[in-house]
Specification:
alpha+beta; four-stranded antiparallel beta sheet; 49% helix; elongated
């Protein structure tokens, strides 16, 4: 038995509508995936920038704000594997003896986004104090202190 022409035309319209709905759904999925990948990449760059900032500020603390610029450039490209990142360190107040310096570290990622961290860093203590005797006046008995703490917690 042959179906009427209107039934076959209706089936063709159904197939076309289903194809359009499927295409819209696929386009939405591709768009969401590309946004997700871009967000993941930005997140990876943010984590890498935070790590670089931590390393820079640790070096400023280690070397001292007044001597950091003598051992490392204050700006430039980062070392491998982060050669696509650039950094800049601004130290304000390092020349004031005994006062903390304000350190602003900036890292620029490959997408051009800037990540900054500002902190105060105290100057390094003078190394001339090495001869000073740092032993306590009275010896410290660790076993006795441990026993005292045990008695306090149990009794």
């Amino acid at each position: 038995m042959v179906k009427p022409l209107t039934t076959r035309g209706f089936a063709l319209v159904e197939v076309l509508v289903a194809g359009i709905v499927l295409a819209i759904g696929m386009a939405a999925i591709v768009s969401i995936m590309s946004q997700s990948l871009a967000n993941q990449r930005r997140g990876e760059f943010a984590v890498a920038a935070a790590s670089i900032l931590d390393e820079l500020l640790s070096e400023v603390v280690l070397m001292g704000p007044d001597e950091f610029g003598l051992y490392r450039p204050l700006n430039g490209p980062c070392e491998d594997p982060w050669q696509d990142f650039t950094y800049e360190v601004a130290i304000d107040g390092a020349e004031a003896p005994g006062l903390p310096a304000t350190v602003l570290a900036t890292v620029t990622d490959p997408l051009g986004r800037r990540h900054q961290c500002e902190t105060k860093v105290a100057p390094r203590p003078e190394m001339e104090e090495e001869d000073r005797d740092r032993r306590p006046e009275e010896p410290f008995d660790r076993e006795q202190r441990h026993d005292e703490l045990e008695e306090q917690t149990s009794g």
